[in-house]
Write a structure and sequence with these properties.
single chain, mainly alpha, two-stranded antiparallel ribbon, 57% helix
Amino acid sequence: MQKPFFTAAKLSFACSLFILLAGCQKPSEPQPVKEQMESAQPKNEAADLTLLCKKVEQHMQEINSQRTTFALEQVNQDLKVCLPLLPLAKQMQLLQRSNEMYQNFLRVDRTASQQLAFERYAFDMAQHPTIHQSHFEQLHIRDQYLLKHQGQAYVELADASFSSVHYRREPDYLAKIFAPYMPEAERVFIENLALQNVEPAFANQALLIEPFEIARRAIFWEDYVKTYPKSSFAADAQHLLYEYKVFLFKGLKNTPVSSNYADSLDIQVSSLEEIRKLSKLKRSELAVQSGKFLQYLEMNSQQRLETLNGQSDLSAWQQIEHYLNLHDPKPNYKKDCFSDSVCL
């Protein structure tokens, strides 16, 4: 009987040889095309990113009081993409644009009756946040929208129990959107001022923070001025240092440190304690001024008069201000450094 041409062994060998030869063949033509597509994709993405970053400033300028929080959040997302790619000068330019963007977004043109309704609603909400207010319908339609969308896109209503009622951008906005991508000096300024301004430092000519916190902030701003003399915010830091020195040594009208600086018993106890601690610091102008403050309290009226160069008509505060050489480094400074994470 004739044997079959292919035995099982030969068939297995033939199959193995076919597979081996097939594996050695050159790939078909579509492979280089795929590689071309893959290499072109990053270039397209880079081009899209460049275009996005060119338009981000334009998009910021288009935000106004007719836009939604969704539109605002989209711009903020674009900023987080673009800021790491930009030099400091451009970052600072966009930071200024972001200030203007939020001012435009939060603007509400109310009538007198709408303003009154807004103030009443905000005050009632601060006192009784869980109670529905019947006069919500009396509010300007933009107020209705913003109140419903508080907490979105870093928008909040400033605490109505302590200050005039208004919307504001949350202080941590710049700390989260801008600061992570900026040089150290600018990042440190923004992040720390954001923390300091989460709650108001004062209202209605009264300090709302304790002398311990005032002293801590004064030390911080003195160190900042020394550490980052070339910071974009150096002048603002100098102003903040001066303001906290005033809070420390003088206080405000409704929370004065002293009535007449007659002696140590005429000084608020907690303030005097912090000033004594500060006087023991090393290599610090704040320590020098604290030491002189304590010296002044030990002087009699004749000794004090001798320090005034004949200016006997000065008030008690003016006298000690003169003795401490405590003067505003920028007397024409007009910015507000107590509402946001930059001075506006």
